[in-house]
Amino acid sequence: MIAEFTTFGLQYLESIQNDLPVANKRLVGLVSILFVMIVWGSSFAVTKVIVNVVPPLTLAFYRCSIGALTLLSIFFIRKGRSAGRHLADIPWGVIILLGFTGVTVFYIFFNLSVRLTSASVGALLQGFIPICIAVLAAVFLKEKLSIKQVFGIILSVTGVIFIGFLSSNQSSTGNSITGNVLMIIAVIAWGVYTIISKKVADRDPLLITSLCTLAGSVLLLPAAVYENWGKGWPSVSFSGWLAIVFLGALASGICYLLYNKSLQLLSAAEVGNFINLDPLVGFILALAFLHESVTMVQIIGGVLIVVGIVLSTTPSPVEKSSADPVSLPPL
């Protein structure tokens, strides 16, 4: 039902897209990416609430399974009879590795972290992802870093130290070093996932993301079974399931498609600027809805991370014409 409704909505957008003036197309793109940023930003606060009801590994399994089913349903509905042709010669070894790093490992450590630290701090630490990807790309893909990028990386690392370690163990913020370290591990896992995904960059992105999410969900099942062994699976209320569906179907499924739609209507640089604001959106929403307190050290650290991201991910005028598409955030 969700997949069919989403597919219908996207097909409707595509049908009217060619008839819209350029200004209106831009407006549709801006509305799409703003909606995506709000949903992804709110994922931190929603996860913080539901992870105290559903155990973290079980929540990861539920969320990713729903996300995989949503994405696969949309893929088969959109491709129709030609879907089988796209499934030929799938590099399953790479898919499983991507599912393990970007889904299984990422969401295990992400959920464990959010349970221990505040959602606002978790959102700011997630902002370190572009920096992590840049460093891993320089090490393993031999991509060159400019002086501006190196300076941005230094600023962001300093911001992570401010938030993750210098402001920790303060009862008023619900911040803990253990939770922050777990979030940093999740960030590194996503960085590794992004580097490995270069191997399938020429494949259908919707199909690859769907299969990776499915593979990661299968790998999460043993962890969820172990977590509930001898205790029984948790009883989840209707509102709890709504939160899980929000995370799985909307944040991990539908928003992925809206993100790609915004890339078609806006420039990669414009979308990248919104993506860079994602941790700030998550931080603000966590403060607003969870009433988490914040320290000046955390604010300084957040500013350093955001400035570092802008410096390290904004291409120079010479690079803009050949800039790679924006990497999809994990949420």
What do the pLDDT scores average to? 83
Provide the low-confidence segments as ranges: 318-326
Describe the largest sheet. Answer: none
Structural class: mainly alpha
The total number of structural domains is 1
String of helices and strands: HHHHHHHHHHHHHH
Tell me the helix content: over 70%
Silhouette: globular
Description:
The protein is mostly helical. It has one domain (2-82, 90-316). 75% of the residues lie in helices and 0% in strands. It has helices at residues 2-17, 22-50, 56-79, 83-86, 92-116, 119-126, 129-140, 147-166, 177-196, 205-227, 238-265, 268-276, 278-290, 296-313. It is globular and about 55 Å long. It starts with a helix and ends in an 18-residue tail after the last helix. The relative contact order is 0.21. Residues 318-326 have low confidence and may be disordered.
Brief synopsis:
The chain is an all-alpha fold and 331 residues long.
Give keywords:
331 residues; mainly alpha; 14 helices; 0% strand
Any chance you could write out the topology, listing elements then pairs?
Layout: H1 2-17, H2 22-50, H3 56-79, H4 83-86, H5 92-116, H6 119-126, H7 129-140, H8 147-166, H9 177-196, H10 205-227, H11 238-265, H12 268-276, H13 278-290, H14 296-313
Helix pairs in contact: 1-3, 1-11, 2-6, 2-11, 2-13, 3-5, 3-10, 3-11, 5-9, 5-10, 6-9, 6-13, 7-9, 8-14
